Write a sequence for this structure.
């Protein structure tokens, strides 16, 4: 049976931001376990690796000089300085993945999100909030991986970031991991059903269809109910 509409097969570009300690990384990892069709872009950074970082998986680590070389060569879709280090999204692979219908996730900060939205206006921007500022403080301190200065800087940045929340399309509060992951899935799914993703409509001629229906023997014999 032929379908009435053909929708865009292109994957969605999804930006996920949220203060450091909001739990966005964990939400994305859980989401990816359930959604093998999605792909997370691995960023470049000049920050020092933490003990739980896996080079090539959490980030590709570069020196500041190497990072600046990438900027000069136009290798980055966007980049920003955050808490004294560079972070950037490699341009490579993103377009290929989108064309093949793969959903691409960028876990980037607010500055990067705004740049990507400007470049690709249909980007779905999702902001992850911690349950409360008190809980955020607890998580940042409890992580035990950063210096006091770094924790303070990240906590201050969190306030500035949350003030930018209205630039995003969706907000998810991370007070329950499973619930947050399901909400991300629901947002991406509902975006796929948007009417502006319809590329073509194949709707037959109404009169011809009705004529055919009237000619149908079963219909004439009242064997089918409308
Ligand atoms: P962290 O040092 O905690 O891993 O990351 C610090 C911040 O940098 C987070 O808000 C994270 O989302 C952001 N970030 C990670 N990769 C990128 C990137 O490629 N571009 C931008 N603009 N921000 C990034």
């Amino acid at each position: 049976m032929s379908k009435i509409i053909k929708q865009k097969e292109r994957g969605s570009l999804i930006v996920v931001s949220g203060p450091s300690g909001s739990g966005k990384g964990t939400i994305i990892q859980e989401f990816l376990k359930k959604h093998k069709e999605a792909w997370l872009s691995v960023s470049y950074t000049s920050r020092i690796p933490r003990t739980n970082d896996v080079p090539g998986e959490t980030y590709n680590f570069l020196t500041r000089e190497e990072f600046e070389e990438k900027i000069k060569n136009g290798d980055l879709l966007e980049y920003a300085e955050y808490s004294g280090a560079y972070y950037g999204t490699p341009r490579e692979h993103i377009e290929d993945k989108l064309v093949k219908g793969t959903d691409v996730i960028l876990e980037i900060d607010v500055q990067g999100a705004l740049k990507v939205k400007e470049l690709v206006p249909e980007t779905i921007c999702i902001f992850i909030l911690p349950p409360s500022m008190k809980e955020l403080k607890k998580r940042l301190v409890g992580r035990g991986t950063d210096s006091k200065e770094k924790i303070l800087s990240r906590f201050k940045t969190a306030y500035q970031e949350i003030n930018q929340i209205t630039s995003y399309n969706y907000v998810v509060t991370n007070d329950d991991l499973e619930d947050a992951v399901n909400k991300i899935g629901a947002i991406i799914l509902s975006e796929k059903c948007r009417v502006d993703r319809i590329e073509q409509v194949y709707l037959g001629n109404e009169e011809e269809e009705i004529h055919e229906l009237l000619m149908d023997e079963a219909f004439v014999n009242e064997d089918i109910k409308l």
Notes: The CA atoms of residues 27 and 177 lie 6 Å apart. The domain at 5-220 is CATH 3.40.50.300 (Rossmann fold).
